[in-house]
Write a structure and sequence with these properties.
Blueprint (H helix, E strand, L loop, with lengths): L2 H10 L38 H9 L6 H4 L7 E2 L5 E5 L4 H6 L6 H12 L8 E4 L13 H18 L3 E5 L1 H8 L5 H4 L4 E2 L6 E5 L2 H6 L4 H15 L1
Parallel strand pairs: 2-3, 2-4, 4-6
Antiparallel strand pairs: 1-3, 5-6
Helix pairs in contact: 1-5
Bound molecules: uracil.
């Protein structure tokens, strides 16, 4: 482990330890998708939109009541050539204020985790299931997810990432069309919807801020990300 990784592990509050088993023994192989995953990518008019038009459509969206309470929409950020797409839940207070995903405390932890595995925020693409902040950071409502997620599906189709990591149960539940617990969803490989894009699931950084004991497990997930991107 180099000095920089070590620095960021300290920053994240992760103690360095060695697993007795190799991580790969816990993982299914690509193609062993353990869940039915039948989310279609087509069937929405937004399927023809390019990045600029998609961004404009999101900015003017009034499909659900979140448009009444948002300061602004939060489209997504990062490299349009990114191999890794990170999908979170929904904007919070700071994201709503700045118009960028993961810029609050959870975002700082996400940045530290990326740096710990040698990735820069600018070289990945980050988006959320919802593009508008739910009031008081409540959970996304099912009808909000239904109305908003065609945008995310189009982002995936335009980006064509090599790997998607779903952070937290809301992202995992939407992307995998399941209600399994996060602990059951981790440590497995999936394919996103009808695509061949591999997908893995990890803890949401906000959860890790409340449960730092799981940071070491999250770090294993992020090491897997690097392995899969290589
Ligand atoms: N939590 C998320 O899921 N997304 C954000 O953009 C910020 C916090």
């Amino acid at each position: 482990m180099n000095q920089t990784s070590s620095y960021y592990l300290d920053l994240m509050g992760i103690q360095r330890w060695k697993s007795r088993e190799t991580l790969s023994s816990h993982w299914s192989l690509p193609g062993d998708s353990v869940l039915p995953n039948n989310l279609p990518l087509d069937g929405f008019s937004i399927d023809q939109l390019d990045w600029d038009d998609l961004r404009s459509k999101v900015a003017e969206c009034t499909a659900c009541d979140l448009c009444k309470t948002r300061k602004q929409t939060v489209f997504g950020v990062g490299s349009l050539q990114a191999k890794l797409m990170i999908v979170g839940e929904a904007p919070g207070f700071y994201e709503d204020a700045q118009g960028e995903p993961f810029v609050g405390k959870a975002g700082q932890l996400l940045n530290a985790m990326l740096q710990a595995i040698g990735l820069k925020r600018e070289e990945v693409y980050i988006a959320n299931v919802l593009k508008c902040r739910p009031p008081n950071n409540r959970d996304p409502a099912p009808e909000e997810v239904v109305k908003c997620t065609p945008f995310l599906k189009r982002q995936v189709a335009l980006l064509k990432p090599k790997l998607i990591i779903a952070l937290g149960r809301h992202a995992a539940h939407f992307l995998l069309d399941t209600h399994e617990s996060l602990s059951k969803l981790r440590n497995k490989m999936y394919a996103y919807a009808t695509t061949e894009v591999p997908l893995i699931v990890s803890y949401h950084p906000a959860y890790l801020l409340r449960n730092p004991i799981d940071k070491k497990h999250a770090y294993q997930d992020w090491q897997k990300v690097i392995e899969l991107l290589q």
